[in-house]
Amino acid sequence: MPKERRLILKNVDRPGYGNDLAAYMKEGGYSTLKKALALQPIEKDGNTLDGPAQIREEVKKSGLRGRGGAGFPCGVKWSFIRHDGGKPVYLVCNADESEPGTFKDRQIIHKDPHQLIEGMILSCYANKVGLSYIYIRGEFPEGAKILDRALQEARENNFLGKNILGSGYDLEIYVHRGAGAYICGEETGLLESLEGKRPYPRIKPPYFPAAIGLYLSPTIVNNVETLCHVKHVIEMGGENYSKIGTPGNTGTRIVCISGHVQRPGYYEVEVGKATLGELINDFAGGLREGRKLKAIIPGGSSAKVLKAGEKFSIKSKNPDDPPKELELLDIPYDFDTLMAAGTMSGSGAIIVMDDSTDIVEALSNVSEFYAHESCGQCTPCREGSLWMSKILTRMSHGKGMAGDTEQLKRVADHIPGGRTICAFGEACSWPVQSFVSKFKDEFEAVEKSE
User: Fold this and answer.
1) Spatial CB neighbours of 53, under 8 Å, sequence gap ≥ 6
2) What is the pLDDT of residues 24-66, one digit of tens each?
3) CA–CA gap between residue 298 and residue 169 (Å, rounded)
4) 399 phi, psi to nearest 5 deg
5) In what order do the strands lie in the sheet with 172-177?
6) Domains of the chain, start order
7) Taking the model in full, what pTM does it have?
8) How far is the C-alpha of 382 from the C-alpha of 371, rounded, in Å?
């Protein structure tokens, strides 16, 4: 049985540990920042690397991938930033955590806020950022207060502000509260909101944040958990960090397990070292007594559902090796394997459904959320998400009509595929496509002949 490997959650929920600066400093808080600010230039491959460049190299070496959803390599994202355009560079922490089933980032914010702040300062120093923001979800008012207090503590102790710890480096971080919109989890929608505008996602290209981001300047947008990991990468070194987890899926990951399990909660494990079955049965205590597994959504409600009893052919990274045939509960929980299984690890939220689940009602609930949260900018999302929700509401209330199942599939198939500006098209369509495909008989069973 795998065990938790707590890096980010090391102090979270530990008896006697507070969320103030004194508690954090007692556990070695901000010592990594002091170490980073003291780095001296070194020569490498004929180039002189200053302290910030050395940090960027360590992050790239670590293989750290974003923990917000897409799993894009953090160091590669940072490398897209250019400092020669005369514009300032910004870093924005995405703390909008709105994906249904996800509840990890708020634990960090509420219970260990200085870890996030230190990770942000290190990331800002690495990318020569002088002004940074934490964009926090509107429904987290207490979290915003905790962060404001922690930032003030950091300022009073010269971890923020002018000439941080005598290094000559200046940085300010501010908290910005959103108004509670799922679309603000999309990085360009978030930037629009941060600028005080309606959160309409921007067209990419040209509005890739690394080139044209906040105030049309180069901008890094990273998730809360990702920025916390930066602290640990610098603390232990990129090479040592890369040995945690599995090749291509390094470090630890906080997973949120909810639904029909006995111990719902958040757990931190090495990426790829635990299977779905181990996470559900060993960590979350298994299913409720007398129940059988029906389905799993492995990465938040927008991820495609996996059906109990399915078999998956997973290609090996070595082209000479034959594909592995895996049962659902034998799938390792990592970015690449879940993608090969036709879904994604997304925000790290595992939603478990047992055989008591009404699949039509479950999908209706999901679709109602996405219909409500569409920003309305793109016609396929605005009309399609509402259309699907109306059909599913009717079906779940015993008023399904002949052909509803096929109609659902047609609508869902015509929303994604480059027809929308952002990935919301996929987010609202993938659940419908996968639920209808894998549980078609249950949808057809509620149709009524005319």
Assistant:
1) none
2) 999 999 999 999 999 998 988 888 899 999 999 999 999 999 9
3) 42
4) -120, 30
5) 172-177, 131-136, 90-95, 219-223
6) 21-243 (3.40.50.11540), 253-354 (3.10.20.600), 359-444 (1.20.1440.230)
7) 0.95
8) 7
